[in-house]
Specification:
The radius of gyration is 16 Å and the shape is globular. The chain has a single domain, classed as HIT-like (HIT family, subunit A, 2-Layer Sandwich), CATH 3.30.428.10. The protein is 26% helix and 19% strand. The protein is an alpha+beta fold. A hairpin with a 3-residue loop joins strand 3 and strand 4. Bound molecules: zinc ion. Zinc ion binds next to helix 1. It is an enzyme of class 2 (transferase). This is AP-4-A phosphorylase. Keywords: Nucleotide-binding, Nucleotidyltransferase, Transferase. One of its GO terms (molecular function) is nucleotide binding.
């Protein structure tokens, strides 16, 4: 392969969560079994319920807590885009237990510390899309996005070209973040 990046059609990634085409600089993509849009809202169809049963590498799991875990987003908005979520199949934030609420918050803080240590981002976007109308790709199982930001990352590529350069393989990102994640 030459060093020329090639734009992979969005259709080859499964159902797009947005209409931004991804520009993959490494000529390979991480395949994991179906973090695509579920057919229905049941736990049996839910990738976030299925992923913890597998190994960390294939599920892109970065850290496992008691009530919550952290994994890389398969459709990242930026390098290092993590999600923190409860193991339990629950959609509405007010329905979290106290233990889930506090660990989701603590793991979000840890995610920021780890991302700062590994990638030195200039800022973060944190948040949850509650409901499909609000933009949640998998609305039935809530997940908090932790998106590192760099000055100028909203440049002409995503704005004009609807394309984003992601220079590191998700598998490599996962390994680096998991290694930097402190033991609970
Ligand atoms: Zn679920």
């Amino acid at each position: 392969m030459t060093g020329t990046p090639e734009q992979v059609p969005a259709a080859e990634f499964g159902p797009p969560e947005d209409d931004i085409a991804r520009l993959w600089t490494p000529h390979r993509m991480v395949y994991i079994g179906g973090q695509d849009k579920p057919a229905d809202d049941t736990p049996a169809q839910c990738p976030f319920c299925r992923i913890p049963a597998g190994d960390d590498e294939s599920g892109l799991v970065v850290a496992r807590g008691r009530a919550c875990y952290a994994l890389l987003n398969l459709y990242p908005y930026n390098g290092g885009h993590l999600m923190v979520l409860p193991y339990r199949h629950v959609s509405d934030y007010p329905d979290l237990t106290d233990a889930e609420t506090s660990e989701l918050a603590a793991m979000t803080q840890t995610a920021m510390r780890v991302l700062r240590a590994v990638y030195a981002p200039a800022g973060f976007n944190l948040g949850m899309n509650q409901g499909e109308a609000a933009g949640a790709g998998i609305a039935a199982h809530l997940h908090q996005h932790v998106v590192p930001r760099w000055t100028g990352d909203a440049n002409f590529l995503p704005v004009v070209g609807r394309t984003k350069a992601l220079p590191e393989l998700l598998a490599d990102t996962r390994a680096r973040l998991a290694a930097a994640w402190p033991d609970a």
